[in-house]
Amino acid sequence: MTSPYYQDDAVTLYHGDCREETAWLEADVLITDPPYGIGWSKGQNNAAGSHAHAGILNDGDTSVRDEALTFWGDHRPGVVFGSFRAPRPADVRQTLVWRKPVDAGVVGSVTGYRTDTELIFLTGPHPRRNSSRSSVLTTDGGVGAYRTEHPHSKPIALLQRIMEWLPGAVADPFAGSGSTLVAAKLLGRRAVGVELDERYCELIAGRLAQGVLDFGEGA
Asked: What is the pLDDT of residues 150-167, one digit of tens each?
């Protein structure tokens, strides 16, 4: 295992492949936004203010996500973001839906209906509770509140809401631009992340170095 790319009192980040950098497997709960396996990419759209993006590493299929989940096992809770357009993970206990803000999902929509929802798969054992929360999680404001250099950003507030029900150290083996790690740090939780793309490691390190001053809503 290599030395951390970034480390502070709460969070440790590794640059590399989560199948090789395995410190995240020592955590208590998995909260991650892996490659969905849909071969996503995006072209330039000047009218919509959308910049081209070549795609996400390992997004050709779900094999890397599924390998990571096999490493994690079924004896600890997992929260895994995903897509309607790809196979779901094995042994899903329940599926939640994230309803994005009103200005999300416009780019690429041709039917008049926005692509403004994503799935959240719950795996492994989750604490038994009374059914006090909806399985549809919503986000207030607009996408600008949580947009970062990563194309699939998630709101910090959304991740914190999920995290508050799952105690212990947090693992994110597909750290993206780091919102899971930022959310954990803001809640005073320990967390360990791994990110394959070094440009996003740099982004994560910069966000984490701001400490609790980073109240932005990115992923």
From this structure: 566 789 999 999 999 999
